[in-house]
Write a structure and sequence with these properties.
Distance between the termini: 9 Å
Oligomer: single chain
Strand content: 5-15%
Helix content: 55-70%
Largest sheet: 4 strands, parallel
Radius of gyration: 22 Å
Shape: elongated
Order of helices and strands: EHEHHEHEHH
Number of strands: 4
Number of helices: 6
Structural class: alpha/beta
Length: 162
């Protein structure tokens, strides 16, 4: 299971906006879980322990969040309500660490792309294991489309079973 960092706005001008931002972060976290990912959403829980109005506590929370971010496979950015100052810092940190940043609205496409890439790579690496063999067959001079297709189907079954 891949670990992902959820990046969305938290700070707000009023309590209604804060509630909206929390609801959005929760929805993004749920979306990630439903996609089979392990999300880390520090602004949902660190803000329960730290006071955002105290600069030193906000800085400590941001530093802890950035440490967690660097251990993630990619970052999901929720841009529905814009990009906040904190989000900009998280995106910059991900870029500097070479961690992919994915728009939450495009998550489904990213995951499908990753799935297909994994299936294709598996099929390329394992096609010969699915070859029935032939006296005229050599991997350098024979088209291996059928073994490739069988390896791809097998990989699909592996991917869907877990």
């Amino acid at each position: 299971m891949r670990t992902v960092y959820i990046c969305s706005p938290y700070r707000a001008a009023d309590s209604a906006q804060l509630d909206r931002n929390i609801d959005y972060a929760q929805a993004l976290t749920k979306q990630a879980i439903e996609a089979g990912l392990a999300p880390i959403t520090p602004h949902l829980y660190m803000t329960q322990c730290l006071n955002e109005d105290k600069p030193e506590e906000r800085a400590a929370g941001m530093a802890a969040g950035l440490t967690l971010l660097k251990r993630c496979d990619f970052v999901i950015v929720g841009v529905k309500y814009g990009i906040s100052e904190g989000m900009s810092a998280e995106i910059a940190a991900a870029d500097a660490a070479g961690i992919e940043v994915v728009n939450a609205d495009k998550l489904r496409y990213k995951l499908e792309h990753d799935r297909r890439a994994w299936l294709e790579e598996y099929a390329k690496l394992h096609a010969c294991e699915f070859c029935r063999g032939s006296r005229i067959h050599t991997c350098t001079g024979y088209r291996c489309q059928q073994p490739y297709r069988e390896a791809y189907k097998y990989a699909e079954a592996l991917f869907t079973s877990g």
